[in-house]
Amino acid sequence: MVLELDRMQKRFGGVVALRRGDLRVAAGEVHLLLGENGAGKSTLMKIVAGMIEPDAGAMRWKSSPARFRSPAEAQRAGVAMVHQESLLAPHLTVAENLWLGREMTARGGFLRRGTMREAAQRLIEEHRFPLQAGWRVERLSPAQRQMVEICRAIAHDASLLIFDEPTSSLPDSETREVFRIVRGLKERGVAVVYITHRMEELRVLGNRATVLRDGETVFTGPMAEVTNDDLVRLMVGREIAAESRPARAPGSVRLRVENLSRGGVLRDICFEARAGEIVGIAGLVGAGRTELCRALFGVDAVDAGHVEVDGEVVRLRSPREAVRAGIALAPEDRQKCGLATSRPVGDNLLLASLEGVCRWGFVDRKRAAAPVHTLIQRMRLKAESPAQIAGQLSGGNQQKAVIGKWVARGAKVYLFDEPTRGIDIGAKEEVFGLMDELAREGAAVVMVSSEMAELVRMADRILVMRQGRIAAELPRGAAQEEILRFAALENA
Amino acid sequence: MHRIWPFLTLFVLILGLSLGTDSFLRPDNLTSVIRQTAVINIIALGMTVIMVAGGIDLSVGSMMAFSGLLGCLVMENGGGAGAGIAAGVAAGLVLGTLNGLGVARLRINPFIVTLGAMGIYRGLALIASNGMPVQNLPAGFSFLGEGRLLGAPFVLWVLVACALAVHVLLERTRMGRYAFAIGSNPEAAYYSGVPVAFHTTAVYAVGGLMVGLAGMIESSRLMTGQPTAGQGYELQAIAAVVIGGGSLRGGEGSVVGTLTGAFIMGLLANGSDLLGISPYLQQAIIGAVIVAAVFVDELRKRSQRPGRSAP
User: Fold this and answer.
1) ipTM
2) Out of A336, A350, A362, closest to residue B187 by CB
3) Which residues in chain A are closer than 8 Å to B187, comparing Cβ atoms?
4) Rounded Cα gap, residues A97 and B40, in angstroms
5) Which domain holds residue B274?
6) Which terminus of chain A is more solvent-facing, meaning fewer CB atoms within 10 Å of its CB: N or C?
C-alpha cells in the first residue's frame, strides 16, 4: 500500500468535516473517491497533501507512519495534488512552472534555463501532452493548465497523484485526454486518487472506489462489486430526520424567466417562481446554477431571453438594476461578494437600504438604529453589538447578515446560492426558517444547493440543471437518487 | 482603544518638545507650525476620503499647483480675491473629478491614472504660466494664508472647518458609508446595489476640492502662483493618512487619525529645526516613522486575523 489512512478526524470550528475517514490506496491503481458535496473528500485529501492538520487518526505512507506538516513536505515525500482551481504562476512558461521551487542551477546560482526547457519538452513528448515547454501558462485553456499540473507531478516523481474533480469544468474532448494520461500513469505504477461527481467517469477509470458520507467512510471495494445505483445510494444514505416544509398553495407569479441564454453557460432557461414558493435548483458543480443566479442578478450580461418580475419585464444590466427591480441575492461566496467584512454589522445590514434612512444624503442615525436592532433580533444574529466587525462573525451569522441586508430593503424575489455552505447545523435550521418566513410573507424564493437532502426538504419544486440547461423539473417529494440521476447522467 | 499609537506618539512629541526646547511653546513657533502644516493637512483630509474608498491620488501635488495657479491667473486678470479663491477651488474639483472618471469609468488602476495625471497637471500648469510665477495679486488675498482671526491663524479655522466637514462626510452621510463599503469590499458593495462608479468618482472630486483649497492657501502664503509648487506633497499626504491608521487596501481611515499623522510629521520637522538636527537627517527620521507606524498597525491587524498567508 502506498497510502493508508485510518480514522482520520477533522473539525472546522463547530463543523465536523471528517468523522472517520478510512482510505487505502495501492500502487498502480486508480482509486475513485466518491461522495456528495461536503462529505469530506477534499478535506481528507488535503490532509494527505499537507494542507490541513488532522485532529486525530493515523496515516501510513509507504508502510511507515507519517504526517505531512506542509505542502512542501508532502511534495518531497511524493504526493502531488491537481486542484480544481489551477495553482500555477500564469506569467511563467510551462517549463518554468514545471520546475518551480526546484529549479536546476549551475554554479553561482544561475538558472540553467536551456536544460530545464529541454527536460520539460522531453517529458511533454514522452507522455504526449498537448503542450509546448515555452508556452506561457496564462494563454492556456483550463484543461491545458491541468495537464501542466499533471506534468509537474510527473516531473517531481510523485508516487501518489490526487485529482480533485479535474474534469468538472472541462468539455468532453479534453476530458478524454485527461483520462488517457491518468491511465498512462496507472500503467507506470503511480497511485492515483480521483475525486469525481460524474457517474459516467467511474467505470472507464477506476479499479476500486471509496465512498464518503457525512465525513465517514461507508464503502470501500472493487468497482466490479457495485452498480451505479448502489453507489448513489451509498453516497446519499438514509433520509435525514428533519421534517419537510409543509405544502402551501402558491400565489401569483412573481418571477418569470424566458429563454435565458448566455454563451454556452446558460442555454434556453425557462421557469417561473410564484409568491410563497421555494423553487430549488439542483445540479453538479459547473452545471450553470451560480451562473443563473449571476445572470438574474444583473452581474453577467445575457445573450438572449428576458426576465419579468410581477409581470413587468425588467432590465438587468447591473446588480443595482436588479435590486431596484426587487431581486435580492445571497451569493455563494459571502466573504467576497456578500459582506464588507472590515465594516460593522450594522453598516452591512443597511448597505442595500441606506436611501431609506437618509435625508439629504445624511444618515439619520435615529432612523437607522431602529431597523438594525429589529433585524438583529429577527435574524437571531449573534453579534456583540451592531458595531461588531462583520468579518469576525461565524459563517452562519455572516449569512444571516447577508439575508438581513435584503430583508431590510424588502425584495420580491430572493435568490439563495448555496445558503448553507460553511455554516453549522444550528444556523442552517435558522436560515431555513428565514427562507420559509420570506416565502410565507409573499416573496418568491429560488434556492440553489448542492445538498440534495436540503433541497428535498425545503423546495416546492426542484429544477435539475445539467450543462447549462434545465434537464428536469421534479415535484415536491422527489427522491434524492432521482435528482442525482438527472444531474449526473447524460441520458436519464 | 485599538489605535492608540499615533496619539501616543503625538503626545510624546509634544511633551518632549515642550520640555526639551524653550522655543517650541512660543506663540510664534506654534503659529508657524500651523501655517506650515495646514496645506498638507487639508490635502491629507481629501486623501483620507479617497483612500477610505480604496483609491489613491498621486496627482495632488501637481493638481494643487495647477488649481492654485488658475486661481491666481483669475486674480492677476482683475478678479477679486473671492473670485480667485472660488476659481482655484472649482479647478481642484474639476481636476479631481477627471481623476475619478478615469478610475471609475475607464477602469484604470488608480495608481496609474493619477500617476499620469500628475504629469499632465504639472505640464499644464507650466504651459499656462509659461513657467513663470504669477504675481500682482490683490493685497487682501494674503489674509487666507497669513491672516489672524480670534487670536489664531486664519488657516487654523479653515483647517478645523475642513476637518469637521470631512468627518461628517465620512461618518454621517450615505456617501461616507458607501465609501467605506467600497473600500472594504467593492464586490460586496456592487452586489448590494451600491452605485459604485458614481461614488468612486465622487471621492476623487472631494479630494480635488480639498486640493484646490490647499492650492489657494499655498498661493496666499507666497503671494504668488507657482507652477512648480507642491512637489512631493502627494507622498506626505499619503504618509499622514497611513500613519493615522488608513490603509492602502481601503476601508480604513479617519479624520482624527489623519490629522494626528500630519501633525506628527509636522512636529518632527519643526522639532528637528528647533533642536538643530540637520534637515538631511530629518528626512530619514520621518521616513523611518512612516514605516514604523505602518508596521505597528499591521501587527495589531495580524493579531485579529487568524491563519497564515503569503507575504
Assistant:
1) 0.74
2) A336
3) 336-337
4) 47
5) 5-299
6) N
